[in-house]
Write a structure and sequence with these properties.
Helix content is 22%, strand content 25%. By secondary structure, the chain is of the alpha/beta class. The chain binds glutamic acid. The site of glutamic acid has 11 residues, from loops.
């Protein structure tokens, strides 16, 4: 009898014999097998010697893919889009969103061995480049509700990868007095592809959501192997590769923990769970802010434009904190001074990504500091952008001094004075 998707089979190839469940493959010439560990393995049809049926798919009325096990910790899941919630449409060649949560859980049943998915919310299905602060606020609001419910141990958010670190930073600021884990996860390769990273990421995300790590963290592959993940602090993480499964790296710090599907090994200190506390939503945001990068030859007029339309800007300057001033053909200082005098809040972050600004090393940096630019040490530029919107979105911090003080306060681990990693 011919094996069909859902059947358990043993496939003998010219190299090895593999056992697993047949998965619908839309890719020509490829048979897709889901191995016991959740990994999808693509086998070239021409390499197959034989396929033996071990067990037929259990038929019957279509059940919910979501399994309830009330003995396991309760976790709520928020689905927002991205590759992890999509599958390849081989007719058009494009990737399309899954249309309901059951499809997602059909693809990743391993999660039910770790936690009980109590609730699934789908506020929207978007690629992360199409999100803005209103989406971050919506996600934060759902998190607040779940985390303040005594029955919920933690929250998992599935998200697109490209701008995931912005959402992670926003939740780090919006969820004040965090009491439980908020875990963002993703996949670089869709679930119906061989070598998808989704199953391991989701299993490890579930493990962290049930742990005592009461922080906003991103959980994803630690290397390009499929063995364990890292839990990375949401305010100190960045996508640093376009396609690798370990695209996210901790910046200027270390991972909080190594996460395996069956255990967690803590690496650094972290905020711990307190089920008696309540998290508070504090999601004020002013989006009249910009994030720009200094480049040699930059036109000073940019600052004149910004000061008439915007309330704040983060500028990525050189490693130690420089941009073109006195000796440059286009000296930016007069325009920056005019902009600051006009009320524009100007912050500086480091464009080398790793390392910290140290404007005191050279005299041009000292000069810039005296003009009132706020130098943000080792804070990531993207986190600085989100934090600036957050700070300017609060009426209680309105003077330049209050804004500077707040930007320099370590609210959510965005500064690391010990600079590791
Ligand atoms: N640009 C899309 C996003 O960031 C790609 C999908 C993905 O990376 O998950 O959502």
């Amino acid at each position: 009898m011919e094996a069909k998707p859902g059947d358990r089979v043993s496939i003998r190839t010219v190299h090895e014999t593999l056992e697993g469940t047949l998965v619908e493959s839309y890719e020509a010439g490829i048979v897709l097998l889901k191995l016991r560990n959740g990994y999808n393995f693509g086998i070239k049809k021409e390499d197959i010697v034989s396929i033996d049926l071990i067990g037929k798919k259990k038929e019957g009325k279509k059940k919910e893919a979501r399994k309830v096990n009330s003995k396991l910790p309760n976790v709520d899941v928020i689905i927002t889009g991205g590759t992890i919630s999509s599958r390849v449409d081989y007719q058009t060649g494009g990737v399309k969103w899954l249309t309901n949560p059951e499809e997602l859980f059909e693809l990743y049943p391993e999660i039910f061995e770790i936690c009980n998915v109590r609730k699934v919310e789908i506020p929207f299905m978007k690629a992360s480049e199409n999100m803005d602060y209103k989406d971050w606020q919506e996600i934060a609001k759902i998190c607040e509700k779940s985390l303040n419910d005594g029955d919920c141990e933690g929250v998992i958010i599935t998200h697109g990868t490209d701008f995931l670190h912005y959402t992670a930073a926003a939740l780090s600021f919006f969820l004040k007095d965090l009491n439980k884990p908020v875990v963002l996860t993703y996949s670089q390769r869709s679930s119906d592809r061989a070598s998808s990273d989704a199953a391991l990421n989701l299993q490890c995300a579930a493990r962290v959501a049930c742990s005592d790590i009461a922080e906003v963290v991103l959980v994803g592959h630690a290397s390009s192997n499929d063995d364990f993940c890292y839990a990375l602090r949401g305010s100190k993480v960045r996508k640093l590769h376009s396609s690798r499964r370990d695209a996210f790296k901790p910046v200027n710090t270390m991972a909080i923990a190594r996460v395996f599907p069956d255990r967690i090994e803590t690496i650094t200190g972290h905020r711990t769970r307190d089920d008696n506390k309540k998290v508070k939503l504090d999601d004020g945001f002013n989006d009249k802010i910009a994030l720009i990068k200094f480049y040699p030859g930059m036109d000073p007029e940019i600052f004149d434009f910004l000061s008439t339309r915007y309330h704040g800007v983060v500028i990525e300057v050189s490693g130690l904190g420089h941009l073109a001033i006195d000796e440059a053909r286009k000296n930016l200082l007069p325009a920056i001074k005019r902009a600051i005098d006009n009320g524009l809040i100007v912050c500086a972050a480091c464009q080398t990504v790793y390392g910290r600004l140290d404007p005191l090393v050279y005299s041009p940096g000292r000069k810039l500091m005296n003009y009132g630019i706020i130098f943000l040490g080792d804070m990531l530029a993207e986190t600085a952008y989100v934090k600036l919107g957050f700070v300017l979105g609060h009426r209680q911090w309105k003077t330049k001094e209050q804004i500077r003080e707040k930007m320099l306060e370590n609210i959510s681990g965005e500064f690391n004075n010990r600079l590791e990693g």
